[in-house]
Design a protein that fits this description.
Layout: H1 5-19, H2 28-35, H3 39-51, E1 55-58, E2 64-67, H4 76-84, H5 109-124, H6 128-132
Antiparallel strand pairs: 1-2
Helix pairs in contact: 1-3, 1-4
Length: 143
Amino acid sequence: MMVSTKGRYALRIMLDLAERNTGEYIPLMEIAKRQEISEKYLESIVSILSKNGFVTALRGKGGGYRLARDPDTYTVGSILKLTEGSLAPVSCLDGDANLCNRAGECRTLPMWSKLDRLIDDFIEGITLEDLLRGDEGGDNYII
């Protein structure tokens, strides 16, 4: 599993909005400056976040973006899955059904399945609120 810049930047955008979660709309230009990310690239990411109800957008003067919900309702997993798609460690676990014709005899599949569950449990156990508090999972660690 390799998280792309799109996933990492989406998480940074969401954290930036969570840090300033006053109900006010934050212009994308301000986020881009603070995060040192191209505004044009951020536009494509906030478009995904907005279309999926993670952020609320307002156009025009006084416009920008804000969180659609409280920071404690967003998991790192939900943000990454939205922007990255699957986070499965191997392609045969990518999706709901394992379509691999070797699945029934694959000796490594149980290991990959367990790794997939560990990753999912870990990232789904961390919220934006946890990251704001500096608790990157704390007691939620499975290890």
